[in-house]
Amino acid sequence: FNFAESPAWGVESGAGLESQGLVSPSAVAGLGLAAMMAMPEEAMAKGGEFGLAEGRIISMAHPIIMGGCFLVSLGAGYTGLQWRRIREIGNEVTMLKAELKPHKLKLEAEMAKEGEEQNLTELNKLKADVAAFTADIDAKSAERKELASKDYRDRHWALGSVLLGIGGSFAIEGPVNTYMRAGKLFPGPHLYAGAGCVAMWVLAAALVPQMQKGKDWARSGHIGLNALSTAMFAYYQIPTGIGIAQKVIEKTKFP
Description:
By secondary structure, the protein is mostly helical. Helix content is 76%, strand content 0%. Helix 3 runs antiparallel to helix 5, helix 5 packs antiparallel against helix 6 and helix 6 runs antiparallel to helix 8.
């Protein structure tokens, strides 16, 4: 009906809408419900079949969390190398002590001589050698103690667990969310490199039992896989991911 001409609004007659038989409480409720149902549809990228899972908040969870995982991978790499350095310093100190031992024995033997039997030149040389070895051992031991006090081992384990657990989970969530919004996936560098990164995270973690047994090949493999995955992340995932995130923002609405 025509809002401007009809007396149904009760302005002239003084009667309410309901008394005119034009609007009922059930009709008002129905219109309100229809409006509420229409709002989520506008926020979805593919018709709203999956509800909030198609909205911007959940769709942006993948790029935000994976960006954080890149920083976690850098932290895990740093703490892992520091932990490795602690072990290397321990080996270096052991080797230095082994080299020091014969010099100390020679020095003790030379000092045990009396009078003219002592070779002062040799004695001074041995003292200098022993002092140099001792100073080197003390310096490395102090460095090792300082590194050990920072608890790099547990920090490396914690960051690695976050990367494998959260990073692996949201690496799967991303393609699932894309399929929900678009009804298909988009094969390309981002998808393939992302799958490669996750595979290398898993393989690196699988080498840990052999690393704990002291296998150097496992340690080298662990470091190599994680270094390669981080490089792939930086070269492929970040540049392509920024472009994808911009498209997600364009094609989705809150929530």
